[in-house]
Amino acid sequence: MRFSFPLLIAISVSFFFLACGGETQENTSKKSIFHYNQPNPITSLDPVFAKSQNNIWACDHLYNRLVELDDNLNVIPAIAKSWTVSDDGLVYTFNLRDDIYFHDNDAFPDQKGRQLVAEDVVYSFNRLIDPKVASPGSWIFQNKLVTSEPFKAISPTQFELRLKEAFRPILGILSMHYCSIVPKEAVDQYGDRFRSNPVGTGPFQLKKWLENQSLFLAKNPNYFEKEGSRTLPYLDGVRVSFIGDKKSAFLELMGNKLDLISGLESSYTNELLNANGNLKADLNSKIQFLKSPFLNTEYLGINLNLNQVNPLAKKKVRQALNYGFDRKLMLQKLRNNVGTPAQSGFVPKGLPSYSTTVKGYSYQIDKARQLLAEAGFPNGEGLPRIELYTNKDYLDLCTFIVRQWEDLGIKVQIEVLESATLRNKMTKGEVPFFRASWIADYPDEESYFTVFYSKNPAPPNYTRFNNAQFDALYEQALQENDDQKRQAIYQKMDQLIIEEAPVIFLFYDETALFAQKNIKGLSKNALNLLALKRVKKD
Known about the structure:
Helix content is about 25%, strand content about 20%. The chain has helices at about 5-20, 55-60, 120-130, 170-175, 185-190, 245-255, 270, 315-325, 325-335, 365-375, 395-405, 420-430, 445-450, 470-480, 485-500, and strands at about 35, 65-70, 75, 80-85, 90-95, 150-155, 160, 205-210, 215-220, 225, 230, 235-240, 260, 285-300, 340, 385-390, 410-415, 435-440, 505-515, 520, 535. Strands 13, 14, 15, 18 and 19 form a 5-stranded antiparallel beta sheet that branches. A 4-stranded mixed beta sheet has the order 1-12-9-8, covered by helices on one side. The longest helix has 18 residues, at about 485-500.
């Protein structure tokens, strides 16, 4: 017998409610279940593989870290209730809460989750950097730790992290989901199957995962955080759908079958937003729109390890491309003005060093023509065809830019690849010109400048940028403890990237969350995280 997808989901939902405590069909309506869509399937529920948004959002529901970020991207306590830093910035000592327990699970005696202790932090961090695990997040501690015992349990409630050199962004790095704390017993019991049998301390715990179809989470009854006298979370459960077609997910939202969707897609943007990037007036009573600066810079990257015959090897050609298209019109036509034209360097809005005093590129067609002529290609004459590689999601944006470049006599052919294929070719240096974005891993400008540090491989240095002055400033910034002086160094670095133009700057993104009106407590943050522990569904 073959089941339709909606019927399969209905069966799965029934299973979810029964698994949550044997509820009958008559009283499941009393359950407060938050239902959101994730267009990209989750690949693992193991936090050491929380590389992309689809995995990060799920892991945020299941695990905790030593520290986390508030909505203003300040580092705040989580598992660690407090911490101290040595005067030389090399030793971080964390005092842990003593009331945090892992989810009940078969990995523990009597299936009862035990108390989290400092040894669990040591185990989790050592596992993260273990080459045998091959975590894509192992880089976060690379070249930062002392050789002997970088992670140490001083007592059950005190953990010590030791660095070989001071590194001011380290607390932000510890807020990353790679740094979630897991119990050794569960990893040992499940082995490779830990990806689908997660055990954490988070506000929700796994009930059922039907890969590529639905994920069901239930409230953790032993969660440690409270709001006033009320133990969190407020929700009874979370359901995640994996509807790949964003227009279909939009229709599910409008039909009140989803509580939330994230992001913009050209097939429905004009149905939701007016020309100013605000929710249309007739929808204000039906749904809510949450928008905020997003630490994401969209760009076109240029592989600078180019044969010198390639015109992109010439700095003036790269600068001409930057001057040769209208970013404001692009956002107006394609994104209903959601986002900000990238005219102030690589660091996006939302970080302290971002400033309009950093002068980047604006639309100056005459300046672009002048630079092309100085590069030896007046009106594009003699300029060979350039190939630009992108995925299908950005085809409309690339097409807009390429058409404007045609007015300069620049001919660009767009090649569309699958996202994974494009990333692989970018990593191997097999594409000279490519569409990319950089989303901050943690709230510090260093996360952006690591993209151009010559000692870094690809990723993150997909452009193979190599500049001694930039490298010296990067290393100087890491040693600077005065925030204002450090921001001044960052602005010099940004201005240097603008001058050398290893990228074509496009726009600084904004988050776009669309939710039902009865959803309360959703927060906006510049890392586009989805924390649900304080969310209510009226």
